[in-house]
Amino acid sequence: MTGRKASSPMGPQPGSPPPGEPVFLAVGKLGRPHGLHGEMLMVVLTDFPERLQPGVVLYIGPQHQPLRLKSQRWHDRMMLVAFDGYSVREEAAQLRNQLVQVRADDRPPLPEGEYYHHQLLGLQVVDEADELLGQLVEILETGANDVYVVRTPAGAQVLLPAIDAVILGVDLARGEMRVHLLPGLLP
């Protein structure tokens, strides 16, 4: 998942891994087994399903069990996947309802000015005068553009459209997003 341009005093983002721990990105969710030879239906949650090729190591469930993808093929709007070591229906059924993830550090870099959502969540959001607006806590994906949900220090929410007129820049090293507040954006 990507977003457009776009150590916090407000604390870590809920659900974020402890510092130094690898970040995992969900790329699918396993459903029921399909057929007799270990294939499973998977809901695809990634914008880049073409990267899910046989031989890729995927991490399954909350324990991030590493499994090598043996095969994949499309079935309607879902993907049928099979993993090395799971060759019969009963074995594959053990993986049902688990998230399928990849390590964030294994993903290729995005083009200049684009970021994965996990890179943006938790950033401090400041305006052009360096005044702290709050922390980016959620990204809403809409048809036109993403919307960034910023929680102010007082606990209020500010919704910022992820457009060039509002998002001036992102500095991941500083943990900061700089924004221009158009009239009507603040409550």
User: Helices and strands, in N-to-C order?
Assistant: EEEEEEHEEHEEEEEE
- The dominant shape is elongated
Number of structural units classed as domains? 2
State the CATH architecture of the largest domain.
Beta Barrel
Total DSSP helices: 2
Radius of gyration from CA coordinates: 19 Å
Strand order of the largest sheet: 2-3-6-5-4-7
What is the class of the largest domain in the CATH system? Mainly Beta
Distance between the termini: 29 Å
Brief synopsis:
With 187 residues, this protein is mainly β. It has helices spanning 89-93, 117-120, and strands at 2-3, 24-34, 39-44, 57-60, 65-75, 78-83, 99-103, 115-116, 124-127, 132-140, 147-151, 157-161, 167-171, 176-179.
Descriptive overview:
- The protein has helices at 89-93, 117-120, and strands at 2-3, 24-34, 39-44, 57-60, 65-75, 78-83, 99-103, 115-116, 124-127, 132-140, 147-151, 157-161, 167-171, 176-179.
- It folds into 2 domains: 2-6 and 121-179, SH3 type barrels, CATH 2.30.30; 24-106, Beta Barrel (Elongation Factor Tu (Ef-tu), domain 3), CATH 2.40.30.60.
- The protein is mostly beta strands and 187 residues long.
- The radius of gyration is 19 Å and the shape is elongated.
- The chain starts with a strand and ends in an 8-residue tail after the last strand.
- 5% of the residues lie in helices and 42% in strands.
- It has a 6-stranded antiparallel β-barrel with strand order 2-3-6-5-4-7. A 6-stranded mixed beta sheet has the order 12-11-10-9-14-13, with no helix packed on it. Strands 1-8 form a two-stranded antiparallel ribbon.
